[in-house]
Hints:
Number of helices: 7
Radius of gyration: 18 Å
Amino acid sequence: MDQNKKAILAQRAKERMRMLGMNALQLSEKSGVSQSIISRLMNEKAFPSAGNLEKIAMALETTGSYLLGDSDACERRSLDEIKNSVRDQLEDLTIEEKAELAWFILTPVKK
Length: 111
């Protein structure tokens, strides 16, 4: 991971922590990510695994994409917002497209 991504992640995580009135210990407790990983992340010494990045993002009420600098939208959308967005888009689909989408969603993924 390049140093720039580490710097962006550290900056954005610190920014969200300030916004939420949270310190590193509280972030560790809320995310379930060890204090040492949080500390190394804040000091741009390490980069979290994908799983830990998601845990940190959820604890900071944002997304991994925002923390990495890939998105400027810092607020995590609620499930209701996502449902409403999908519902609005579904209205434009034909019955056949809806059936195909339902099949896709309900079909188990083979490993």
